[in-house]
Amino acid sequence: xxxxxxxxxxxxxxxxxxxxxxxxxxxxxxxxxxxxxxxxxxxxxxxxxxxxxxxxxxxxxxxxxxxxxxxxxxxxxxxxxxxxxxxxxxxxxxxxxxxxxxxxxxxxxxxxxxxxxxxxxxxxxxxxxxxxxxxxxxxxxxxxxxxxxxxxxxxxxxxxxxxxxxxxxxxxxxxxxxxxxxxxxxxxxxxxxxxxxxxxxxxxxxxxxxxxxxxxxxxxxxxxxxxxxxxxxxxxxxxxxxxxxxxxxxxxxxxxxxx
Length: 259
Ligand SMILES: C[S@@+](CC[C@H](N)C(=O)[O-])C[C@H]1O[C@@H](n2cnc3c(N)ncnc32)[C@H](O)[C@@H]1O
Known about the structure:
With about 260 residues, the chain is of the alpha/beta class. It has one domain (about 5-15, about 35-200, about 250-255): Rossmann fold, CATH 3.40.50. It has helices at about 5-10, 25, 35-45, 65-75, 85-95, 110-115, 135-145, 175-185, 200-220, 225-245; strands spanning about 55-60, 75-80, 105-110, 120-125, 145-160, 190-195, 250-255. Strands 3-2-1-4-5-7-6 form a 7-stranded mixed β-sheet. α4 (about 65-75) links the parallel β1 and β2 (about 75-80). α3 (about 35-45) runs parallel beside α4 (about 65-75) and α9 (about 200-220) packs antiparallel against α10 (about 225-245). The chain starts with a helix and ends with a strand. The protein binds S-adenosylmethionine (SAM).
């Protein structure tokens, strides 16, 4: 188990743990919570995997924006893991809306626990979840235990554009391009696809910022005691947007596990 799953959830959402219970309210207008859904769909499409028998694992699936659309567009079977039950409730509702409930299973579990057991999925996705497994090398080591030999690992993350290290919480393991590639392939696997998601990330972050500002002000009206925390969160998100816009190249990689 993670020592503190709440900490890893709040880190992935870049929010103080005190605000975690309010995140479903603050993020109610968003379905995707940070990942580049269209780019992920196009990357998955390019693998040309067969409908019906393909099995996908979406770690940190949030409200199922990636899982449900994969099931709906490609006819794949998806298991989504997340530890925020209110997000999973939305994911299940969306699966029903898209008429793919029979293809989607959403499980409330700590991701770190889930990957303790090996699995044989065709593809594992880690999209906008952060560094809960540590370095990129350690992350790949864990993810490759979840797919069969020759299976695929999809990571939606990024690299540092003009520097080797960034001394900021959440970016401890972020590396420049060359180092990132070295780590992604450290276990003898092969990168088969790279998609630059910067434009998409900038757009989604701006949308994220707008929605938390609006919902944050609504929340403050009924919860004056949260005013400082919410304003801190909004300020931190604005800083995050600036960092992503200026220092990070958003990138989606597909790594094929060696046979
Ligand atoms: C930024 S969101 C991204 C969600 C989704 N991939 C998307 O883009 O819509 C990160 C998600 O990871 C989940 N998460 C973070 N740490 C977790 C853990 N240890 N176990 C389960 N879920 C976790 C959070 O609850 C959150 O839903």
